[in-house]
Design brief:
Elements (H helix, E strand, L loop, with lengths): L20 E4 L4 H6 L2 H12 L3 E5 L1 H9 L17 E3 L2 E4 L5 H7 L1
Parallel strand pairs: 1-2, 2-4
Antiparallel strand pairs: 3-4
InterPro entries: Class_I_gatase-like
């Protein structure tokens, strides 16, 4: 019988620079994140420190909205659903492309 262990959640209050990458999946929670200034700051700092940043679906749009002041941000969209890797920002729109996404990220 496998032992059951739980993970200690100790990431709350941590700076984004303490992590090597940030990934945000698609889902209804993205609309909540959109209203959160802290996540926008987190994305900006992650990008500024050249850390890997990833998102699927609506999260790709959130990343693009957050980095709007950066020239020519490229993220996946319905027009380009395949994985897009732009300066370490890896996004994908299509669920069918998620296997390819995992190889890129």
């Amino acid at each position: 019988m496998a032992s059951q262990r739980s993970l200690q959640n100790d990431h709350h209050g941590q700076r984004s620079t303490m992590f090597d990458a940030t990934f945000t999946p698609r889902g209804a929670h993205v609309s909540t994140l959109r209203a959160n200034g802290q996540i926008r700051y987190w994305i900006t700092v992650i990008f500024g420190h050249l850390k890997a940043l990833g998102g699927t679906g609506e999260a790709a749009d959130l990343i693009k909205e957050t980095l709007v002041n950066v020239l020519d941000v490229k993220v996946a969209s319905s027009a380009c659903p395949e994985p897009v890797n732009w300066y370490g920002v890896v996004t994908v729109e299509s669920r069918r492309s998620q296997r390819a996404y995992s190889k890129v990220f």
